[in-house]
Amino acid sequence: MQCDRSPVDWLQALFSDIGFRARPAVIWSASSRSLPITVTLKAGEDAVGALVLDGSNVAEAVCGFTAELQSLLKPFIGGGLPPCPTHGLSLVAKQNLDMLEWRCTEGDFSCALGEYEESLWPPGADERDAAPMLASRLTRRGMRWWSLEVTRGESGWVAKITLQPGTDAGSVRDVVAPMSAELHFAEPEYTVLEDHADGPRSVPFRSLSLRGALQQSALLRGILRRATDGDNCDFLVEGQHQQRVRVRLLPDHSILPGEDMIVADHLGKPFATDGDNVECGGGFARVSPVEGEPVCFHAWEVRVLQKRGRG
User: Alpha-carbon distance 235 to 246, whole Å?
Assistant: First the structure.
């Protein structure tokens, strides 16, 4: 990994490698994007503590931080993190010219920091994490998949993968190799506009929904408000005490200019107006490990609750 990366990029690469073999999972958050950065740690539900990443040379600071991190986690996780695939001992973070690397103290294994999981491909016959390894490998290469299963057969690993429409099957087979691959395609995602005569609390509503996609089940209620350019979302939902939540809408839609109309449906017709009473189905997505940065609600459906008699 190049040494000119930002401190948060370093941390994300480091925790990706540290967390791959960790049982329980290592959960972390950063106080800011610039040094000094306080990193708060948990192992599963157990609070581990906090460490500070700081120094005039970021690469050197990351190496020192890594050693402290491994020592701090050891009582909670046990064993080496990340472990040398040969000896099981903790790999050591070292700077090598313009790269940061993991090295085995015995000298028979090394890889770039952030590429530990990639360096273990293909999985061995006794690999317990073959499925998550494949999932990460596909995701890193931008392959759009829906579900996968990895089993061990007499002739080796077999991957059964359901791909999203439009994904190139040949490229997927190249990524999966030397595993054999059974590939299937999911039905295309599509947007549906519906009117409902009797909805929640006997209130009629109209809905714009994404079908054929994974759906989170959280519900966000409030008043629809126009977003500003700096909100980096499609619209806002205002709840109690005028608290506003950023929303990204997953069904096909467009955001209309002007003072009142905000959301148009997949056909380009106005659907939702500033001040509408709405419900959004979906869930919050953690897009950043940095504390205090705004989160966004990803909605697979938005409902506009209507007053009786409204067209």
Answer: 6
Strands of the 254-255 sheet, one edge to the other: 254-255, 261-264, 270-273
CA 40 to chain centre: 19
Residue 176 pLDDT > 50: yes
pLDDT band at 49 (very low <50, low <70, confident <90, very high): very high
The H or E element containing residue 208 is strand 205-211
User: Which residues, in sequence order, are CB contacts of 305 under 8 Å at separation 6+?
Assistant: 199, 200, 203, 204, 205, 276, 277, 278, 279
Length of the chain: 311
**Which residue's structure tokens are 């030397």?**
178
Q: What angle do CA 96, 98, 101 make, to 5 degrees?
A: 40
Q: Nearest to residue 195, comparing CAs of 285, 100, 265?
A: 265
- Output phi, psi for 99, to 5 deg: -125, 155
Q: Could you give the CA distance from residue 99 to residue 59 in angstroms, rounded to a whole number? A: 9
The whole-number pLDDT of residue 2 equals 57
Q: Cα separation of 83 and 225, whole Å? A: 50
State the CB neighbour count (10 A cutoff) for residue 35. Answer: 13
The structure tokens listed for 236 are: 């806002």
Tokens at 186, concatenated:
């999911």
Strand partners, 153: 156
Tell me what the mean pLDDT of segment 241-264 comes to. Answer: 91
HEC readout, 166-195? CCCHHHHHHHHCCCEEEEEECCCCEEEEEE
